[in-house]
Design a protein that fits this description.
Elements lengths: L7 H14 L4 E6 L16 E5 L5 E6 L3 E8 L2 E8 L3 E6 L5 E3 L3 H13 L6 H7 L10
Antiparallel strand pairs: 1-2, 1-6, 3-4, 4-5, 6-7
Length: 140
């Protein structure tokens, strides 16, 4: 079986560029409860932090294959931020909420196992039922 690289970093980069190109403010919604995220914990609420990643708010912004990293000021103090791509729950424009939301990794793994195990076309129907539409919540 041929293994391909994950699509999520590509979707993040493309959506980020689309938001910026439309003169909107990109925000990342991050699941900060994993312990792998280097974010200012005082701004985490219910395990989630929303980060303004507009070009005017951050420096050295990079969406890599495994990490989203940048430098930003929080309360006037510069901090290095590092978030595993898997912890990003959504990227959206602050002004209108348009963007992308991502499913939890365990839901995706379950879908991938179903696809890998399926050998017949009629199993596609059960895969379609297992998928849930992404939900995007606007956090102000």
């Amino acid at each position: 079986m041929f293994t391909m690289t994950p699509t999520k970093p590509y979707f993040l980069r493309a959506t980020y560029d689309w938001i910026v190109d439309n003169n909107c403010t990109p925000h990342l919604m991050v699941n900060a409860s994993s312990g792998q995220c280097v974010v200012p914990q005082q701004f985490v609420k219910d395990g989630v932090i929303v980060l303004n990643v507009s070009p005017s708010a951050v420096r050295n912004f990079l969406i890599g294959s495994e990490l989203v990293s940048f430098n930003a000021r929080f309360g006037g103090v510069a901090q290095d931020i590092s978030v595993p791509v898997g912890c990003v729950r959504a990227i959206y424009a602050k002004e209108n909420g348009q963007g992308l939301a991502f499913e939890e990794a365990n839901e995706i793994a379950s879908i991938n196992e179903t696809v890998a195990d399926s050998q017949f076309g009629d199993q596609k129907d059960s895969l379609d039922k297992a998928r849930k539409p992404p939900k995007l919540t606007i956090v102000k």
